[in-house]
Design goal:
Layout (H helix, E strand, L loop, with lengths): L2 H14 L3 H12 L4 H9 L4 H30 L3 H6 L17 H15 L3 E2 L5 E3 H4 L18 E3 L2 E6 L5 H9 L4 E10 L11 E11 L4 H16 L5 E8 L2 E10 L16 E10 L1 H7 L7 E8 H9 L12 H4 L3
Parallel strand pairs: 1-5
Antiparallel strand pairs: 2-4, 3-4, 5-6, 6-10, 7-8, 8-9, 9-10
Bound molecules: phenylalanine.
The site of phenylalanine has 11 residues, from strand 9 and strand 10.
């Protein structure tokens, strides 16, 4: 039997196949228990003694070469295909779609409001939720025994009587005005806390966005123009805006800002309590006493400040009637945004 001929034949057979099942068939034909190589090995014993050695060597060499050829072929057939082979993964099966989340409505409205002010040149900064009594009250011209402290009812930290959870974002004014020199145009979004009983319009934690501007010659009309631009960007160009006189210890004069009711367009409905107007924020010219606390010369500089509740803006914008919906993580609610 011509060993070289057999090797050529094996190579020819391997060259023709392109699947693992075919490879197994060819393997059985040559290397199987009843394959050609087993047959050749068996034939050695039947040869005359003097031929056995040489023939045995040839058969052995052929066997080794054949094994190598099969290993090489198997590698070729599985190259780039290993995952499929190992796990029997069916790459033809339809995939499982990933559910995409959306931003929480509070995050969305916060980002939208900040973007409007950023466009008008404001920087967006932050402040801590745990504040000093000084920054939350005294520095803002709210004296210790002043009844207006009740309007900003506060969680105090038990063992640190001078530390509290900020009841508004206005303490950021004190921090930042102490830290930086005018001209200043800054917006500060963040969480605030008040010990209110939770109901449809109250939550012990909610979000505010503070804004203030300080420079020479800042006027009340600057505040009004800026807030009107803001209100129209959020609620649409057809709304009207008005200043309604109010009191805040840290601004003088102070005003609450109303927009014409977006539901009844000012005619009067249940949403606006028949008034035709909806309150959206508090504002005013920064009180000289606040400037004194932070070391800004009130003779040289003037400024305005405003603060709005993010939940309130979001409720008006999207027609949401219960503040608790923001914090219950009910996907039926959150999926609508
Ligand atoms: N801090 C006030 C509040 O929480 C809002 C406000 C901010 C009013 C800045 C005037 C100026 O109600």
């Amino acid at each position: 039997m011509d060993i070289n001929l057999i090797q050529t034949q094996i190579e020819g057979d391997l060259a023709k196949i392109d699947s693992l099942s075919e490879l197994e068939e060819v393997r059985a034909k040559y290397l199987g228990r009843k394959g050609l190589l087993a047959e050749l090995t068996g034939a050695i014993a039947g040869l005359p003694v003097e031929q056995r050695g040489a023939f045995g060597k040839q058969v052995n060499a052929l066997k080794n070469q054949t094994l190598d050829l099969f290993i090489k072929k198997e590698k070729e057939l599985t190259a780039g295909n290993t995952v499929v082979k190992k796990s029997n993964l069916d790459i033809g099966m339809p995939g499982i779609a990933q559910e995409l989340g959306v931003l929480h409505p509070i995050t969305r409205v916060t980002e939208e409001v900040c973007a409007i002010f950023r466009k008008m040149g404001f920087s967006i900064l932050g402040g801590p939720e745990i504040e000093t009594e000084y920054n939350n009250f005294t520095g803002l011209n709210i004296p210790l025994e002043h009844p207006s402290r009740e309007a900003f009812d506060t969680f105090y930290l038990k063992d640190y009587s001078k530390m509290l959870l900020r009841s508004h974002t206005s303490p950021a004014q004190v921090r930042l005005m102490k830290d930086k020199k005018p001209p200043l145009a800054i917006v500060v979004p963040g969480r605030v806390y008040r010990p209110d009983a939770v109901d449809a319009s109250h939550s012990f934690m909610f979000h505010q966005i503070e804004g203030f501007m300080v420079d020479e010659n800042i006027k009340l009309s600057d505040l009004k123009g800026l807030l009107e631009t803001f209100a129209k960007a959020v609620f649409g160009n057809d709304i009207k805006m008005r200043f309604r006189p109010h009191f805040f210890p840290f601004t003088e004069p102070s005003a609450e800002v109303d927009i014409s009711c977006i539901i009844c367009k000012g005619k009067g409905c249940s949403v606006c309590g028949r008034k035709g107007w909806l309150e959206i924020l508090g504002s005013g010219m920064i009180h000289p006493n606040v400037f004194k606390h932070v070391g800004i010369d009130a003779k040289k500089y003037t400024g305005f400040a405003f603060g709005m509740g993010v939940e309130r803006i979001a409720m008006l914008k999207y027609g949401i009637n219960d503040i608790r919906l923001f914090f219950e993580n009910d996907l039926r609610f959150l999926r609508q945004f």
